[in-house]
Amino acid sequence: MMDMKRRIADLAGSMLKKAFPQAEGLPEDLYALLEVPPDSAMGDYAFPCFKLSKALRLAPPLIAKTLAEALDENGVARVECAGGYLNFFFDRETLARDLLSAILAAPEKWGSSDEGAGKTVCLDYSSINIAKRFHLGHLSTTVLGNALKRIYDFQGWHTVSINHLGDWGTQFGKMICAYKKWGEKDAVEQGGVDEMTRLYVRFGEEAAKDPALEDEGRAWFKKIEEGDPEALEIFQWFKEVTLKDAMRVYDVLDVKFDSYAGESFYADKTGRVVKELEEKGLLQDSDGAKIVDLEAFGMPPCLILKSDGATLYHTRDIAAAIYRKETYHFDQCLYVVAYQQDLHFRQLFKVLELMGYDWAKDQCKHVAFGMVSYEGQAMATRKGHVVLLDELLTRAQEKALEIIKEKSPNLENKEEVARQVGVGAVVYATLQNNRIKDIDFWWDRALNFDGETGPYVQYTFARCCSVLRKAPENNAAPAYAALTDDESQALLRLLSRFPEAVSEACQRNEPYLITRAVTDIAKAYNKFYYEHRILDDDAAATAARLELTRACAQVIKTGLYLIGLSAPERM
Ligand code: ARG
């Protein structure tokens, strides 16, 4: 696969070695040192000269001169020295020819790599809670996790996506108790999570009047723990009803999981954790509870067992991490969870490390993200405006449909496209900036076809498809000289850097780098589209511009897929 940066690094490296065989301290590989200049007039890649001039004991201009002569015939037009940098300029025609043939040779693979070959990554995302509403608070983890899974897959990793369900705790005993007393099967089937919540709230109200109820609730939880068939059956059914609701969201977003092993899955695996902690001398008593003291690390203690012997969120997470390591042999275990749980994960990783699991230190990562608010209002779970994901996505599709009806009244599959565009708008808005940044979601912004939005990028893809559809039969050999203008070159340069964007997105767990890359490509294509006649009288020039259009469409489609958007061919 052609990677211009790689090519420059290799060429420059070998030229240097040839020109200066005696030099010591030349970097083995120049790749990491190459930079993208802020302005393309300064070159396609830049190399900080002073790093070379020291090793070579030569002034930067002399190095530039030697390299320029050597690189002349290799698709690099010239090397210039400016402001402490060596600037590399590609030969414009060569760039067009080589890059387009590389992209079009394996259109669906451009940007992929085998960086992760032989490695496994576990991704813990979405991880919803049973009997709780699936609201906007779970949007980022779901969308981010899905994008990361696709990106890691694309980089050759073996991925294991896990929905670590929140399905353990005394509240489920209370809920079953309430159901037995006042519940009805049909009401739960139809009302779903809302009905379960209603039962749970009623339990609280009744227990305030009659404290003995609390014991009954606890007894039901104990039954779940002990595997009582009736308790398990109801509990299992609550889970199914909750998941059925969630599935609607997952289907619309095209999000999939390899495993739904949640907290309850680890209930019978926490005994071993407690025993191990004890044996390793890490467990301490604290008012009847068991804790791991983390004061030496500047953190509050990690709670392992309550005084009644019940396990905690941490206990189950310790068991889960060990289980995942032993089952999947992961090289990375990512937790895509809000930054509010930062302390939880620092404690978790530290305890694992203290237990002697060295991998916890560099293989377990909390992939944290900021808050989402909706049209200026922070998420409130209690009073009123809980924005349900399901409703948000439905609303997105309705709004997109209105716009599409107006913009493209003749489009055949309006509903289908509205789904892709509406969902795309939401997903794009979620992955637009680095993940730690808070998101304020506004409809007008997300659905603006002209701004930096999902619909804008999708629209550009559809535009490319339309150009390709309209192109007449053309057998002319492409004249790449037709792509040496600034607009074509700007677009080519962005396409050539797409693989770097994907690789960096994977290394930093930042899908927004891909969002940005496809947005820049879309903008550059539109500029190219307005400045040049693609379907021209000159068949050879037309063929070259069509190749550029096809490559661009393909890269946009790949990029959109990687962040979780579909690419409609007509909109
Ligand atoms: N269910 C939790 C929540 O909604 C997130 C779980 C994240 N994963 C984990 N292994 N702790 O807050």
Summarize the structure.
By secondary structure, the chain is α/β, with parallel strands linked by helices. 55% of the residues lie in helices and 9% in strands. Residues 124, 127, 129, 164, 166, 317, 320, 335, 337 line the site of arginine.
Give a verbal description of the structure.
This protein has 571 residues and is of the alpha/beta class. The protein contains 21 helices and 12 strands. It has helices at residues 4-19, 49-56, 60-71, 92-105, 139-154, 170-182, 185-191, 193-209, 212-226, 229-253, 270-279, 313-328, 342-354, 359-363, 389-407, 414-430, 443-446, 454-470, 486-508, 512-531, 539-563; strands at residues 45-48, 76-82, 85-90, 120-124, 158-162, 283-286, 289-292, 302-305, 332-336, 364-367, 372-374, 439-441. The strands form 4 sheets. The protein has a 4-stranded parallel beta sheet, sandwiched between helices. β2 and β3 (85-90) form a beta hairpin. The longest helix is centred in the middle third of the chain and has 25 residues, at 229-253. It is flat. Arginine is lined by residues 124, 127, 129, 164, 166, 317, 320, 335, 337.
Could you list some keywords that capture this structure?
571 residues, alpha/beta, 4-stranded parallel β-sheet, 3-stranded antiparallel β-sheet, 55% helix, binds arginine
Count of β-strands:
12
The poorly predicted ranges are none
First-residue to last-residue Cα separation: 32 Å
Number of helices: 21
Largest sheet: 4 strands, parallel
Query: What number is the mean pLDDT?
Result: 92
Question: What ions, cofactors and ligands are bound?
Answer: arginine
Shape: flat
Helix content: 40-55%
Structural class: alpha/beta
The main sheet orders its strands as: 5-4-9-10
Radius of gyration: 29 Å
Strand content: 5-15%
